[in-house]
Amino acid sequence: MIRTLVLAGALALVAGLAQADEPIVGNWKTRAGDTAAIAPCGGAYCITLKTGKYAGKKIGRLSGTGGSYSGEITDPADDKTYSGSGSISGGSLKMQGCVMQVFCKTQTWTRL
Length: 112
Hints:
This protein is of the alpha+beta class. The protein has one helix spanning 2-18, and strands at residues 26-29, 35-41, 44-49, 58-65, 68-75, 80-89, 92-99, 103-111.
């Protein structure tokens, strides 16, 4: 009985570690003041606006680990998609979208 409980506890701990969220997962306040939710989706992280004029709109998909991510970011105002990246430092997420890796715009989002 004790061995079964110890084994069950160890398995639960390992499962919890395997499912630990990346630093990017969560809710973020955008520069415009809207809330963007970042959640795992299909082996990457999807960015969806939760509040504001474009609430419910998916605006990005990033892949990566350990605080450094890359993928695509969409401007919800004009539906144009750009190469994107994100990097986390503390409670800040620096998001960058670029055209041809030359013309880039950067925003800093804060964790809610």
